Amino acid sequence: MSILNWQRLVLFLLFAMATTSATTLRNIMYLTGQHPIIPDDVSLRAPITHVALAFMNSNTFNGDDYNSDWPIFMSVEQARSRFEPGTKIMVAIGGWGDTGGFDTAARTEESRARFARNVAAMVRDTGADGVDIDWEYPGGNGEDYKKVPNEAKAWEITAYPLLLAEIRSALGPDKLMSAAVPGIPRDMLAFTAATVPRIMASLDFLNVMTYDLMNRRDNVTKHHTGVQLSLDSVNAYIANGAPADKINLGFAFYAKYFRAEGESCAESPIGCPTGLMEDPETGADLGKTGGFSWHDDVPEDVRGSFEKAVSEGRYDEQGGGYWYWDRDRALWWTFDTPAAVARKFPLIVQEKKLGGVFAWGLGEDAPDFAHLRALHAGVERLAKRKDEL
Q1: How many CB atoms lie within 10 A of CB 127?
Q2: Average pLDDT over residues 278-305
Q3: Residue 299 — φ and ψ, nearest 5°?
Q4: Is pLDDT of 375 > 80?
Q5: What DSSP string runs through 159-222?
Q6: CB-side exposure of 181: number of CA atoms within 13 Å?
Q7: Percentage of the residues of the chain whose pLDDT score is greater than 70
Q8: Which domains does the chain possess?
Q9: Tens of pLDDT along 90-125?
């Protein structure tokens, strides 16, 4: 090979390395039927590497008859036309409360094969780049955990990796496959040292839902998407066999509030008792918690309190989360500001060498997209850091 050709080869490899390093981190957005809003500004779309359309109901794939009508709020073709060339468009299947279809699918070898065959047909028919399996949660602790006890779902722990393997086989190696997985250790019933390696054998990456880490099943105040709790989530998956570079950290583009017990929280709001927040028999919400995205109108009854939370809230350096305690209303507020989003990159994504990030969801941050901008900036900073190393 001539010197000139060697020089050309070296320049090509350097260019390829630079291009690859700039896109090392996955930057995934769930696009939801609740807020199907896509920014007009190309600078807000260009950094997005994957879009997951959420959701298609899991029971859609349990029929024996072939059906080319795949119901979802936005077609893959339409979504693809709205994002930059090269953006991967995936279809997310399931979601909170959608467990029945997965239960039916996972039960037998035959039902797993049928479900997988139909998922592959959907991907082929829609032109999607892959699927995200959002079963919340195999093994129990889903929305129906009071009606169907975890003991009745223990079989799903073994069946879950079998179902994933069947889907992977039907999709083939060229399509993407991911799973959205619980962020709270108590919900990781199906994600053990025995099962995680088998699960990861079928997946390109995990979307760890490091949000809603405080919910109505808790009895003390904490950060619903805090740094330390997020690290606990990530560390649990890594310890059980998930490669760090296949893990994506979840970001929540919404705020949450909880009604606590009042005076006892005045001196120490973090870790303050909340009292019972769900019905102990049915699991139903007792009306002590709420939330809304940045695109939603703030509920009238908490609007004034939220305004104080935005202007007077503070960041907890120990637990890593933005919070506000409204003493007058006995309301605990927990959410990420753009500055809190930025802190997670060095503290979690860089520290644990994760493969990417994702957010629920893109339209939830409209119209200002302040949290999205902070997320993009964090991805860009880490990409530049890798280029410099």
Answers
A1: 11
A2: 96
A3: -55, 135
A4: yes
A5: HHHHHHHHHHHHH-TTSEEEEEE-SSGGG-TT-STTTHHHHHTT-SEEEE--S--S-TT-SB--
A6: 31
A7: 92
A8: 18-252+337-388 (3.20.20.80)
A9: 999 999 999 999 999 999 999 999 999 999 999 999
For the chain, give the number of residues: 389
Which among 124, 125, 104 has a CA at the least distance from the CA of 113? 104
* Cα angle 248-257-330, degrees, rounded to a multiple of 5: 150
Tell me the HSE value of 299 on the side-chain side, using a 13 A CA sphere.
Answer: 11
**Alpha helix ranges (H) inside the chain:** 3-22, 42-45, 76-82, 100-106, 109-126, 156-171, 196-200, 227-239, 303-312, 338-344, 370-388
**Per-residue pLDDT tens digits for 154-191:** 999 999 999 999 999 999 999 999 999 999 999 999 99
Q: Which residue is associated with the tokens 């066999």?
A: 241
Whether the CB-CB separation of 214 and 334 falls below 8 Å is answered with yes
**CA–CA separation, 288 vs 225, rounded Å?**
19
Cα separation, 332 vs 224, whole angstroms: 11
Contacts of 309 (CB under 8 A, 6+ apart): 255, 257, 324, 326, 333, 335
Dist. CA 239–CA 193, nearest whole Å: 7
Q: Which residue's structure tokens are 């003390």?
A: 220
